[in-house]
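User: Could you go from structure to sequence for me? I need the amino acid at each position, not a summary. Structure tokens:
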């Protein structure tokens, strides 16, 4: 028996979707709603930029839209932004993060362009209709490759402490200052500044600053005034708007103050930890070092490895800074342990000398415990502001060629507070200090001890060989002089070169009735001898 299967009912057919007609596909896509009115803070109004064939005009509109971006600046012909950074020298509980100037990456520039405007492209087939688009890549690259962006804020530098403006006022409000192009990012809260201080206030402020270094044995009151001028120079560097002198702190031959105390105090009061540049790197290739400072927005630098350099070497460094215009807006600090007796040094350097004494870590930190850094900073600003409020009285100072503007702002303010002129008499050889005389006397008298071994005079190399071969207790005065004027291993050629320069520098100096004379020269170098002389006729 065959069982027949029930017949299946045909499944209901679903009608196929009709293909979209070309006319339907040609319908315009709906445009995004226009931006909300400006009254709605959640949807601020932004300009609309239509992307056309005139690429320069489109890029110009993009630059106009970028003017509303608070994080975008122009620095040294580059688009830059400010990035927070933690500085190892600011490990204080109350310290705030500092800001670093960095180039603006192209992806970030594209994001800012997208945020600053609505970019529209014409719809094909209907030029009157536009659709929202991404920022074209050629717009980003075109704007980034320019070197001039009208309407964008120019950034001169980032400062972490209040400074004196060119108009004589104090920049003390955090943020961007349109008048100077400076961005003030304070490291810590500061006391309120008096906007109208008097001359008495300025003199009290000068005493406060000098009390902070009363443990430092300055050679003379002029050196105290020079140190105070070094403190004020970083605070007034943007008000000067011209070349600044090289600030050199000179140690006595028997002490070491400059590296650990004086220069650090001056820079700490002015702008915090400085950038460091080796003198050997600065002279042969100054552009690289100076460009790195400008890219980082630095304005204060410290030249290291210059302790044993002569005045001629410092003059060469100054010429490099002048040639590259690096002294305009930059404050350069340096330290030396030599006796700079070259009168030419006074033409380009502000020098403060220390004399004798012994330094300990306790002494170096005393000023921090007695007075806070903010108090010292306010004292420096008070001096500068009070002199401006008084109308910058004419102090009748001797003209310092190349530093007239600095003299009118900083040097005159120091003298106005009752201190001596911080600049040594121009064109005259500075008077040597007692320690300088002692070291030079050790060199002259100690050289006479070599007469028995070298009756015809000795070269610098021969003298060092004699010291190396003789017992440690022999030639004590000459050894003391070599430690001051030519520190280093006795068998190195650099030590002999430095000693030879010192011999030339102190030639004809009369000490204890004796003076150095050139006895002859040959393949081994100059031979030096000592003869009896009187102070009246050092020839």
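Assistant: Here is the amino acid at each position, in order:
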């Amino acid at each position: 028996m065959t069982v027949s299967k029930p017949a299946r009912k045909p499944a209901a057919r679903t009608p196929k979707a009709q293909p979209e007609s070309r006319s339907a596909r040609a319908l315009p896509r709906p445009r995004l709603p226009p931006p909300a009115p400006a009254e709605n803070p959640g949807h601020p109004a932004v300009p609309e930029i239509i992307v056309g064939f005139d690429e320069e005009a489109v890029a110009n509109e993009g630059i106009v839209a970028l003017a509303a971006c608070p994080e975008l600046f122009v620095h040294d012909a580059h688009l830059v932004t400010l990035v927070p950074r933690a500085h190892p020298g600011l490990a204080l509980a109350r310290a705030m993060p500092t800001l670093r100037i960095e180039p603006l990456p192209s992806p970030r520039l594209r994001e800012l362009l997208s945020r600053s405007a609505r970019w529209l492209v014409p719809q094909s087939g209907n030029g009157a209709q536009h659709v929202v688009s991404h920022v074209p890549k050629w717009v980003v690259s075109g704007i980034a490759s320019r070197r001039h962006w009208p309407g964008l804020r120019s950034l001169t530098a980032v400062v972490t402490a209040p400074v004196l403006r060119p108009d004589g006022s104090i920049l003390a409000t955090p943020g961007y200052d349109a008048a100077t192009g400076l961005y003030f990012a304070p490291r810590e809260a500061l006391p309120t500044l008096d906007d109208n201080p008097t001359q008495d206030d300025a003199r009290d402020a000068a005493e406060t600053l000098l009390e902070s270094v009363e443990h430092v044995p300055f050679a003379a009151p002029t050196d105290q005034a020079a140190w105070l001028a070094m403190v004020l120079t970083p605070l007034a560097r943007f008000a000067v708007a011209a070349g600044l002198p090289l600030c050199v702190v000179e140690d006595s031959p028997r002490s070491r103050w400059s590296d650990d105390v004086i220069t650090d105090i001056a820079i700490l009061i002015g702008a915090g930890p400085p950038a460091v540049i080796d003198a050997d790197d600065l002279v042969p290739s100054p552009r690289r070092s100076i460009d790195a400072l400008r890219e980082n927005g630095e304005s204060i630098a410290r030249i290291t490895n210059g302790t044993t350099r002569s005045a001629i070497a410092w003059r060469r460094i100054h010429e490099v800074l002048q040639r590259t215009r690096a002294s305009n807006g930059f404050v350069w600090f340096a330290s030396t342990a030599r006796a700079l007796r070259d009168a030419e040094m006074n033409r380009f350097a502000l020098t403060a000398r220390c004399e004798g004494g012994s330094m300990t870590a306790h002494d170096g930190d005393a000023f921090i415990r007695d007075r806070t850094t903010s108090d010292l900073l306010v004292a420096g600003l008070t001096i500068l502001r009070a002199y401006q409020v008084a109308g910058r009285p004419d102090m009748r100072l001797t003209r310092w060629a190349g530093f007239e503007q600095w003299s009118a702002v900083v040097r005159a303010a120091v003298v106005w507070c009752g201190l001596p002129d911080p600049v040594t008499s121009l064109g005259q050889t500075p008077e040597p200090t007692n320690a300088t005389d002692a070291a030079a006397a050790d060199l002259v008298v100690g050289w006479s001890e070599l007469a028995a071994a070298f009756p015809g005079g000795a070269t610098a190399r021969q003298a060092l060989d004699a010291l190396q071969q003789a017992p440690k207790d022999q030639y004590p005065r000459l050894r003391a002089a070599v430690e001051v004027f030519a520190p280093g291993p006795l068998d190195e050629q650099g030590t002999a070169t430095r000693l030879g320069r010192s011999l030339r520098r102190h030639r004809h100096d009369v000490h204890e009735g004796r003076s150095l004379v050139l006895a002859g020269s040959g393949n081994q170098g100059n031979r030096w001898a000592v003869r009896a002389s009187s102070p009246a006729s050092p020839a």
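One structural detail worth keeping in mind: The chain is about 35% helix and 15% strand.
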